[in-house]
């Protein structure tokens, strides 16, 4: 598809972006090499002047994008009305700047790796009028709970900076194997990502890894299991899962970091899912700075396991 010359005036929400990122977002289907070439050759202009790829855009700047040929993208399967309805019903907070979703277990936050769509694609499909929807952070596919989505670029920048400055607190609930020790309230083992022979990515404790810290509190003990609250201070991949396993108490239902015998025993009591839930978020609202705390209820499978364990613990006593 051949495009015409585009003249775009940068508004407050677009401001602050690098020129290359601004172009890549608007020229989907155009190879990166071509995008960088048209900048280098001076075909992209800002306020009629040449720019570099890493130049930052300001409010009121006028960007000229030259005519280009964009490849027509293959038609992707679209989320159906049922899954759109499920995701819309999972929204627990929304204002003009952002929304927060209680993501169901089993749904990825975004498409890729063989998945046609994830949470963000479902939201975009349901909200065709939305100009901007972007994930602020991520959750593993099998982890349920609170995910923040920005509705404005300014909100995305604010919230991601708050994450970097560790001013957003996340609280997870996890059902772990065994009785969590009272004296273990933190795990600070460095974590290293690696690849299995089959190409699957995993994480392990290693001195070569990145510094990581998770705070733990035991909430309740059952027969053979404990419900803990885990608050990650750093945000490494699989951090809570690996730190729990390293402490000798892997998360129930974790087929990556739990041994086969423990996994089989968990399935025998009706366990169907990874028992990790992003329970609460504490953060400041973009724009107003108002402090906010949100909590997300457990889903049926998570609650069902806790109810079964409560019954079993009662019978034992």
UniProtKB/TrEMBL annotation:
Active site: 140
SUPFAM superfamilies: Alpha-L RNA-binding motif, Pseudouridine synthase
Key words of the record: Isomerase, RNA-binding, rRNA processing
Keyword rRNA processing attached: yes
One Pfam family from the record: PseudoU_synth_2
Enzyme Commission identifier(s): 5.4.99.-
Reaction catalyzed: uridine(955/2504/2580) in 23S rRNA = pseudouridine(955/2504/2580) in 23S rRNA; a uridine in RNA = a pseudouridine in RNA
One of the GO BP terms on file: enzyme-directed rRNA pseudouridine synthesis
Domain RNA-binding S4: 17-74
Gene Ontology molecular function: any one: RNA binding
Top EC category: isomerase
Role noted for this protein: Responsible for synthesis of pseudouridine from uracil at positions 955, 2504 and 2580 in 23S ribosomal RNA.
Family: Belongs to the pseudouridine synthase RluA family.
Protein name per UniProt: Pseudouridine synthase
Naturally occurring in which organism (per UniProt): Marinobacter nauticus (strain ATCC 700491 / DSM 11845 / VT8) (Marinobacter aquaeolei)
Taxonomic lineage from the root: Bacteria, Pseudomonadati, Pseudomonadota, Gammaproteobacteria, Pseudomonadales
């Amino acid at each position: 598809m051949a495009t015409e010359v585009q003249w775009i005036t940068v508004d407050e929400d677009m401001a602050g972006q690098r020129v290359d990122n601004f172009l890549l977002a608007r020229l989907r289907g155009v190879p990166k090499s071509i995008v960088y070439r048209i900048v280098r050759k001076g075909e992209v202009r800002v306020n009629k002047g040449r720019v570099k790829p890493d130049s930052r855009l300001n409010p009121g700047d006028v960007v000229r994008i030259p005519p280009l040929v964009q490849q027509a993208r293959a038609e992707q399967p679209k989320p159906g009305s049922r899954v759109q309805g499920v995701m819309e019903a999972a929204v627990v907070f929304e204002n003009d700047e952002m929304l927060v979703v209680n993501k169901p277990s089993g749904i990825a936050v975004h498409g890729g790796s063989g998945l046609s769509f994830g949470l963000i694609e479902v939201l975009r499909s349901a909200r065709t009028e939305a100009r901007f929807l972007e994930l602020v952070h991520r959750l593993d596919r099998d982890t349920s709970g609170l995910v923040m989505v920005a509705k404005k670029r300014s909100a995305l920048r604010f919230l991601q900076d708050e994450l970097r400055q560790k001013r957003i607190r996340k609280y997870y609930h996890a059902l772990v194997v065994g009785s969590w020790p009272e004296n273990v309230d933190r795990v600070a083992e460095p974590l290293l990502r690696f690849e299995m022979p089959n190409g699957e990515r995993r994480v392990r404790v290693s001195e070569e890894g990145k510094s990581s810290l998770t705070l733990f509190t035991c909430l309740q003990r059952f027969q053979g299991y404990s419900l803990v609250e885990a608050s990650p201070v750093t945000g490494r991949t699989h951090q809570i899962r690996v730190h729990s396993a390293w402490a000798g108490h892997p998360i129930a239902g974790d087929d990556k970091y739990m041994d086969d015998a423990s996994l089989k025993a968990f399935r025998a009591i009706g366990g169907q899912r990874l028992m990790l839930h992003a329970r609460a978020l504490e953060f400041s609202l973009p724009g107003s700075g108002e402090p906010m705390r949100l909590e997300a209820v457990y889903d049926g499978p998570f609650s069902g396991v806790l109810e079964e364990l409560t019954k079993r613990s009662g019978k034992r006593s």
